[in-house]
Amino acid sequence: MNGSAADYDALWAKNVGAARQAGIQVTAIAVPNADTIKVGVERFYQHFVEQLGITDFQVNTPFPGGEPNETKENLSLDIDQLGQFYVDLAQIWLQHGYRNNVRIGPFDALLDYFTEGAACLPCIWRQNCADEFICIDAKGAVAQCDCWVTSYPEYWFGNLFRADSLADLLKTSKARQHFKARPKQLMQQGECIDCEYLALCHGGCPVRTYTLRNTLTEKDPYCELYQTLFQHMEKGSRQISSARH
């Protein structure tokens, strides 16, 4: 749309209200950018939870998939600053949202993981997403997930309309074999073998790695951010467990 950020916020709030009136539960996925970091976590949290009344949303690390352009260049953020943003937001959630039924991903899943030992973690930390799901677009292109099917045709597994079967396509796809081999390759290269959070992270997200490093065989570029967040949430889980007892 054409207009200022305030115009966009007003339209966004109006549409959130209209959706609720129609009986739709509104959730959101937020992707921080440079301006998000500038306004800070308190205003960010207040905007979603207090102003819009959205009490279930997730915050994703940015990655400029596909061909580069000016907008995508602005998505590149300092990892340390972004990591601090995540930690500060997690702390606000622990203090003000956790006990008031506010759910923010990935903080809620991490808290479950560190307190209960089990959780439904986001796809970026699954053991191997190649064993979990696929994505098929309207033209039959099959890829690992929507990020791959929309941005990287060189990593499509094939086309469903031109295959004998989906099972055969997945079995014979060379691209898919690269995904399946990634965890072992990370261990062989020593990228993650000594990390105390290996069983949680598994080397991170392959599409973020490919987008920012142009390879599948390196760990997620947001590794340090994840480690900082894991440490913070692990500490928070201990404090909550102590308070219960």
Helix content: 40-55%
**Separation, N- and C-terminal Cα atoms:** 52 Å
Report the total helices: 12
Count of domains: 2
Biggest β-sheet: strands ordered side by side in the sheet? 1-2-3
Mean pLDDT, nearest integer?
92
**Which residues form runs of ≥5 with pLDDT under 50?**
none
Element-by-element helix/strand order: HEHHEHHEHEEHEHHHHH
* Shape call: globular
Task: Supply the helix-strand structural class.
Answer: mainly alpha
Secondary structure: elements and pairs:
Blueprint: H1 5-21, E1 28-30, H2 34-39, H3 41-51, E2 56-59, H4 70-73, H5 79-97, E3 103-105, H6 107-116, E4 135-136, E5 141-143, H7 146-151, E6 158-159, H8 166-172, H9 174-188, H10 198-201, H11 206-213, H12 223-244
Parallel strand pairs: 1-2, 2-3
Antiparallel strand pairs: 4-5, 5-6
